Structure formats: structure tokens, C-alpha cells
Amino acid sequence: MATDDYSPIFQGDTGNPFAIQVLYGDGTPKDISGATITMKMELMVSVGGLLTPTGTIQTCNGPWTIDDATKGKAHYQWQPGDVATTGVWGLYPVVTIGGLPVHLDGGNGIVKTLNILPIPQ
Fold this sequence. Notes:
Helix content: under 10%
CATH class: Mainly Beta
Strand content: over 45%
Order of helices and strands: EEEEEEEEE
Shape: globular
Structural class: mainly beta
Number of strands: 9
CATH topology: Immunoglobulin-like
Number of domains: 1
Radius of gyration: 14 Å
């Protein structure tokens, strides 16, 4: 993954995209030429210090941009509906090439988390 500068954000902030880099297990880039990328987010809560899924899922409907296919780099520009609800969200991107999913790091499929903070009053 690239340097993390996408989180935390304030509710409604669509200015900073979520960038990924798809890598093989040895750290070399995976070519994502012709890939389709989608993403879902799931609201998480802390239970005993561990982030636990709540079952509240939303689909990110905005477009992904492949920035450098041979280096496996792409980004998603947040849409207003994606960042409307505060909380910690697990991000589940799916990269599909030739109809087959590319397995991403992150244990149970969560690659990263996004912390959406309330706008200060």
C-alpha cells in the first residue's frame, strides 16, 4: 500500500482519495491492466479493543482510476454518500482481472480502515 494519507477525514470531505497498490506476496507490483475495481465499506465498532463488523455495509459507487497499471496503482475519489456517516469503516476493495478476483492483503479482506470524524461545532 502507498503512504497512508487518506484517514482520518471529516464527515463529507471528498478531497483526499483512497489510493491502493496491488502487490504480490513478495512485494513486487501486480499488473492491473484491464482490471475492474469495486469497493464496499462496513461500519466497525471496538469490542474488547478489536474492530468488529456491525453488518452495516455500503457500496462505493464512484469510479476508480488506474494511475499506473504496470505498478498496480489505482485510486478512488470519495463521493458525498461514501463519507456521510461518521465512524470507523472497514474498506473492502475488490480487484477483478479477466473475471477473477485478485486476492488483497489484510487478513479477512479488510485492506484498510477509514475513520470519518464529525465536523467540529
